[in-house]
Amino acid sequence: MSTTLGSRTLKATSTWDTERYSTRDKHQDKEIQRRITAGWIAFAKHRNIFKGNIGTCLKRKVYHSCVFRPMIYGAETRALTTQAQIKLAAAQTKFTYWDRKPTSE
């Protein structure tokens, strides 16, 4: 099967260049993990603020300006996969509930 585009004839192929895309995804996984680690490092630097008896509004502002920004740095230029979105969402949930203790039955 072929398609004509202007004066060119393009051949249809049944193969997919998976190596190129899987390599990109592997690099993206490393970058996502690096960004999550940067978020945890920033979170650890400000742990005394999050532990302290400070208002939730101030804690939220510190989180958004000092923790969340390093985690999403450069994300505007990235096309995120579903797996990467899940990893970032899980990390954000862990930041939010880090001080909660599990209930014992």
Shape verdict: elongated
Strand content: 5-15%
Counting helices, strands and paired strands, the structural category is mainly alpha
Helix proportion: 55-70%
Count of alpha and pi helical runs: 4
Largest sheet: 2 strands, antiparallel
Summed up, the domain count is 1
- Tell me the total number of β-strands: 2
Low-confidence residue ranges: 18-23
State the order of secondary-structure elements, H for helix, E for strand. Answer: EEHHHH
Mean model confidence by pLDDT: 76
Distance between the termini: 64 Å
Biggest sheet, spatial arrangement of strands: 1-2
Indicate the radius of gyration in whole angstroms.
21 Å
Plain-language structure description:
With 105 residues, this protein is mainly alpha-helical. It has one domain. Helix content is 62%, strand content 8%. The chain is built from 4 helices and 2 strands, in the order E-E-H-H-H-H. Strands 1-2 form a two-stranded antiparallel ribbon. Strand 1 (2-5) and strand 2 (8-11) form a beta hairpin. The longest helix has 28 residues, at 18-45. It is elongated. Residues 18-23 have low confidence and may be disordered. Residues 17-28 have a biased composition (Basic and acidic residues). Residues 1-28 are annotated as: Disordered. Residues 1-16 have a biased composition (Polar residues).
